[in-house]
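Why does residue order matter? Because the sequence determines the fold. Keep that principle in mind as you read this record.
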Amino acid sequence: MQFKDIKQGLIPTREQIIKAVTTLAVISVCVMSGFSVRLLLKGGSSSEVILAAAPDAAEIIPEPVQEPVTEASSETEETTTETAAVSESDVTEVIEDTSSDDSADDAANATTSATTAATTASTTEATTAATTEAVTESDLQLAVYATTALNVRSGPGTDYDVVKQVNPGDQIDVIAVTSNGWYKTYNGNYVSADLTTQTPPTPTPTPKPAATATPAPKETAPAQTSASIDTSQGVSCKITFYGPQDNGDGSYSLQTYSGATCTEGVTVAADLSVYPLGTVIYIENDPLGGDGYYTVQDKGSGVKGAMIDIFVNDTSQYSTTTRTVYLG
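Structure:
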């Protein structure tokens, strides 16, 4: 404890002074009363007694006491002011530093993202270009059959999108083969050659209607040749579907072998040794939902024997089936 603190503790407070003055006043009144009684007993007048006993007013009223302002208070205020100034300055600098760091981090992240995107795009383009240049195609007219559920893709590889899926046994008309083991179909799509076979599946015998009210089911031998097929009665035929032919330059041809324009619901391709050009046929339970009457206007390399290939605008909506075909 400093000396100035000891000195300050010895100075009486205002309340202590008032109590002391009050005590002195009471004592004075008591002394005055006793003095007055003595004067009265000795025969003095009451005026003299009062004047003699009354204390001086100046002596009773205490002087105001001023509390000293200590140096410690001033030093505390100065220290508080300096601390506030320093704290405000430090906070401002920290905020500015943090903002600068955040801006630098954002710029660095943006640069890194842009660099990564550019690198990825360049790598993808280079890989695609290398793949395209490496794969070559050779013309090949062939009919193959899927040995399992087979994805038809937009390009010769599993990285390309799946256009549709064909069922086991479905016929696929091939117009080219690629150097990496894929067949190109007549509509410009691709299938894996390893998942196909040139051996046609054995069709399931289908009952044929007879002229009587209770027709006896009749089976068509699957090994029939074109010359042995009797079209005078209904023939159980394999029904496939084909669409506009890809010209290889981004355009498609609708020209048929007969010179007519392919028309959905009218044009079919057939083995011309079984159904000559211009033959009108009736397909029972029409797969397209029409009246079932079609005209043979086209042929195909894979259309052999008891088989009808129906022209449609979108082959993805249909799959290979079997129907009984009659002469129209």
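Confidence is low (pLDDT under 50) at residues 48-62, 64-96.
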